[in-house]
Amino acid sequence: MAYISGTLLFLIGICLSLAWHEAGHMLAARAFGMKVRRFFVGRGPTVFSFRRGETEYGLKALPIGGFCDIAGLTSLDELTPDEQPRAMWRYPTWKRTTVMLAGPVMHVILAGAILYAMALTVGLPNLRPVTEPVVASTSCVGAVCPAAEAGLREGDRIESVGGTPTPRWADVLTTVRAADGPTALVVRRGGETLTLTVDIAQGRMGASPQPPPAYVEGGLPETVAFTGDLLKSSISQLAAFPERIPAVIKAIGGEREADTPISMVGASRLGGEAVERGLWATFVLLLVSLNLFLAVFNLLPLLPLDGGHIAVVWFERVRDFVRRLRGRPAGGPVDFTRLFPATMVLIVIGGAVMALTITADIVNPIRLQ
């Protein structure tokens, strides 16, 4: 039951994230005076709706994202006489670009807000774990433990070995392996600095380190840095996506590799597993990662994505600049009917890839380790 509840909760989280994306478009469009006809959460049949001002708001039956209907998004949009002056394609380039960027930016804002809350409470995942030179225990396979005999205790921080500074546990290992016989260890114990003499035998002294923390508390700087790391990871994943498609096909009938792409179905299943195991931090991080991936994905310069619309806007801008240099008037909005064949090809390819990943996530899902 916890698994099913977690899966449904993750699906709702995806739906609200996509609706939040559309809210970004709506808020930016309204701020510039564009007409927003409709803003709905979900898809399919209408559950309910109401009108506030010139915009109709509502909820659809299927929890699949949402949509924001801005008058004049493209030149193909049919406009009423009162909408003609406020058609989006009539607005300056920077305003149209801002409206299209607002959706992906909302994903980053949402992810950043969640991560900031985590940083102040449970902490952020430690992406760069460094094992500090702090002793967790002293033990040896044999009867004699040089570290214990020298008086090394749990919690001692080893500052140097044989005069060599040891800022990390890896440095401790390197210096100990190179030493033999009585060796001076400078350790910090509480507020004291002590010098112990350890009789190192065969490059060993019999001490183990405290493992690095899985989560690290922080504030705004740590949140910004962590968000940046996740964004870089999303870009890398997206860049590697085409070459991972054969692995998705292979996963349908064979072994599934851990780094193969997953669909919303696969992500929701992982969310369900996280809730089932009580790993709420993992659940939240999955949702955060998904939002950042959606932000990057939507900026691809391909229609019907936001990045595709931005590419068209700036094509118009560059084209009109060249026309002005030649003493010719602006060329007007791009004819989207000429882009329709390429857009349909991309939609078909995207649909096929989505079908493959969904199939793989159903028959051979990736599971939490």
Descriptive labels:
single chain, 369 residues, alpha+beta, four-stranded antiparallel sheet, two-stranded antiparallel sheet, 9 helices, 19% strand, membrane, protease, Peptidase_M50, PDZ_6
Please characterize this protein's 3D structure.
- This protein is α+β, with helices and mostly antiparallel strands and 369 residues long.
- It is built from 9 helices and 10 strands.
- The strands form 4 sheets. Strands 6-5-7-8 form a 4-stranded antiparallel beta sheet.
- A hairpin with a 2-residue loop joins strand 1 and strand 2 (55-70).
- This is Site-2 protease family protein.
Give a quick account of the main beta sheet: strands, pairing sense, barrel closure: 4 strands, antiparallel
- How many beta strands in the DSSP annotation? 10
Measured distance between first and last alpha carbons: 20 Å
Sequence stretches where pLDDT stays below 50 over 5 or more residues: none
Rg on CA atoms, Å: 29 Å
What order do the strands of the largest sheet run in, or round the barrel if closed?
6-5-7-8
N-to-C series of helices and strands: HEEHEEHEEHEEEEHHHHH
Percent helix, as a range, is 40-55%
Q: What's the tally of helices? A: 9
What is the percentage of strand-forming residues?
A: 15-25%
Mean pLDDT: 89
Give the helix/strand class. alpha+beta
Q: Which of globular, elongated, flat, extended, rod-shaped describes the shape?
A: elongated
